[in-house]
């Protein structure tokens, strides 16, 4: 279990796993009043949360599948990344990909957050790379 410092300026409970084996914790909107997202509109939704991630970790902000399926609501920069050195409020950049208005209410679950370990890369300049069966084959190269 990883301990992470969190400041909660919202009136909502801390993010939590909804099921025993869930990877993501739901984030809730922290709003003074409901916000309407028009079709194809993008809006930055505050959560009231600030976190202090350990070095070597990131928090990924991902869409909620139910909002995407039922209402066409997604996240523009999905997954969004919160770096270990960021201390500002977590905000979620929602987009309405449907043809109808969508109303976001205070306390509504708007995204999920996954905390993950990552590596720091040290590039090693080279003149050739090891060979593989795939090689340089790119998008759709297998014909499947």
Structural description of this entry:
The structure is a single chain. This protein is mainly beta. The protein has one domain: Distorted Sandwich (Deoxyuridine 5'-Triphosphate Nucleotidohydrolase, Chain A). The chain is 5% helix and 35% strand. A four-stranded antiparallel beta sheet has the order 2-11-6-8, with no helix packed on it. The chain has a three-stranded antiparallel beta sheet with strand order 4-9-7. The relative contact order is 0.26. The mean pLDDT is 95.
Short account of what is shown:
By secondary structure, this protein is mostly beta strands. It has one helix at 65-71, and strands at residues 5-8, 25-28, 35-37, 42-46, 49-52, 57-62, 73-75, 80-82, 91-96, 102-104, 109-117. It has one domain (5-117): Distorted Sandwich (Deoxyuridine 5'-Triphosphate Nucleotidohydrolase, Chain A), CATH 2.70.40.
How would you describe this structure in keywords?
Deoxyuridine 5'-Triphosphate Nucleotidohydrolase, Chain A, mainly beta, globular, 4-stranded antiparallel β-sheet
Which CATH class is shown?
Mainly Beta
pLDDT below 50 for ≥5 consecutive residues: which ranges?
Answer: none
Radius of gyration: 19 Å
Find the CATH superfamily.
Deoxyuridine triphosphatase (dUTPase)
Given the C-alpha coordinates, what overall shape results?
globular
Helical run tally = 1
Distance between the termini: 41 Å
H/E element sequence:
EEEEEEHEEEEE
Beta-strand content: 25-35%
Per the CATH scheme, the topology name is Deoxyuridine 5'-Triphosphate Nucleotidohydrolase, Chain A
**Spatial sequence of strands, sheet with the most strands:** 2-11-6-8
Helix share of residues?
Answer: under 10%
Largest sheet: 4 strands, antiparallel
Mean pLDDT across residues: 95
Based on the structure given, which CATH architecture is correct?
A: Distorted Sandwich
Structural class: mainly beta
Number of strands: 11
């Amino acid at each position: 279990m990883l301990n992470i410092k969190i400041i909660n300026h919202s009136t909502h409970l801390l993010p939590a796993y909804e099921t025993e084996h869930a990877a993501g914790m739901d984030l809730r909107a922290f709003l003074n009043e409901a916000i309407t997202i028009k079709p194809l509109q993008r809006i930055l939704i505050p959560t009231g949360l600030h976190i202090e991630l350990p070095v070597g970790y990131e928090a990924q902000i991902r869409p909620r599948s139910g909002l995407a399926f039922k209402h066409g609501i997604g996240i523009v920069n999905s997954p969004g990344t919160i770096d270990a050195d960021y201390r500002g409020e977590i905000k979620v950049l929602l987009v309405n990909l449907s043809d109808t208005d969508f109303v976001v209410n205070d306390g509504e679950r708007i995204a999920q957050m996954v905390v993950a370990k990552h590596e720091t890369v040290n590039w090693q300049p080279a003149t050739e790379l090891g060979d593989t069966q795939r090689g340089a084959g790119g998008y759709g190269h297998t014909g499947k």
